[in-house]
Design goal:
single chain; 218 residues; alpha/beta; Rossmann fold; 27% helix
Length: 218
């Protein structure tokens, strides 16, 4: 992969500035902040947008999808990391793979589903180029999860739905957590669901804006 060196995009100063901004917005985990600092986000966006890679903004990646705002990526990652085990993680809506790479550095195993074939294939290539060996990618319907590899300690869904799909809840391990945006466009709330021996609990956290979780594959 072209690392795009020599055009100012890999500047540590730009990454440090982003990390300082995220810390000021309430991201407290130094482990998560170090991941943001050391992960080359410019490799996950189109070259025409690479100069904006270390801004705290979502950016288009094609196919009507976006790479999430760094703050949201950091917040969702921190939420899972600080509430329990992240040994075995299911990711729904991999997109360009930026969140996938962060999870791969925290988890023993990541199972990542992407409904758009071109993005899934691109992610497989990127993982190979970056020599990431603990991620399995599936082109499929994220609402169904990946039951054969469950149950999961953590499930991260980077797309919004009115309700959490039941198959995903069923694939949470005891002690597991699921984080996803819940609600209709314009009224989405980042939500944390925990599974205990007694059942499921749900906690609404903050307003967010995500693309919808769509049935089927593309």
């Amino acid at each position: 992969m072209n690392d795009r060196h020599g055009i100012g995009l890999t500047s540590q100063r730009a990454r440090n500035r982003l990390v300082d901004q995220l810390r000021g917005m309430g991201i407290n985990s130094e482990e998560v902040l170090d991941l943001i600092r050391n992960t080359p986000r410019h490799l996950f966006v189109d070259e025409a947008l690479a100069s904006r890679a270390y801004e705290n903004n979502a950016l288009p990646i094609g196919f009507g999808q976006t790479i999430s705002q760094p703050y949201i990526v950091a917040a969702m990652t921190e939420l899972l990391l600080t509430t329990g085990s992240v040994s075995r993680v299911l990711e729904i809506g991999a997109g360009c793979g930026y969140q996938t790479i962060l999870l791969s550095k925290l988890a023993k195993q990541v199972f990542s589903i992407e409904r758009i074939a071109a993005l899934a294939n691109r992610l497989r290539e990127r993982l190979h180029e970056l020599r990431v060996v603990n991620v399995r990618v599936r082109h499929g319907d994220g609402r169904l999860g990946w039951a054969i590899h469950g149950p999961f300690d953590a499930i991260l869904i980077a797309a919004a739905a009115g309700v959490v799909p039941q198959p995903l809840l069923e694939q949470l391990a005891i002690g597991g957590r699921l984080v996803m945006p819940v609600g209709v466009p314009g009224e989405q709330t980042l939500t944390l669901i925990r599974r205990t021996e007694e059942g499921l609990s749900e906690e609404a956290l903050q307003r967010v804006s995500f693309v919808p979780l769509i049935d089927g594959v593309g």
